[in-house]
Specification:
The chain is of the alpha/beta class. It is built from 2 helices and 5 strands. InterPro entries: Aldo/ket_reductase_CS, NAD(P)_OxRdtase_dom_sf.
Length: 74
């Protein structure tokens, strides 16, 4: 997967998963499946109205000791 450098020298993935239509258990599963497939960048926004399943998915990812980039627009 291609990455771009940030001014902190961190590397952010160039390709991410958009979560606009990811709701309920399907949204939760989609994020976990994408993470397992190698996605490490996710696009989230308050306007998507899916905070609960996304929160559950990222809590699961974080508690497993893994890391992901999350872009959130409030």
């Amino acid at each position: 997967m291609l990455h771009s450098p940030l001014n902190t020298n961190a590397q952010i993935p160039r390709v991410g998963l958009g979560t606009l239509d990811s709701r309920g258990d399907d949204g939760y599963t989609a994020v976990l499946d994408a993470f397992d497939a190698g996605y490490r960048s996710f696009d989230l926004a308050f306007a998507y109205l899916n905070e609960e399943p996304m929160g559950r998915a990222f809590k699961h990812i974080i508690e497993s000791g893994k890391a992901a980039w999350v872009r959130y627009v409030g």
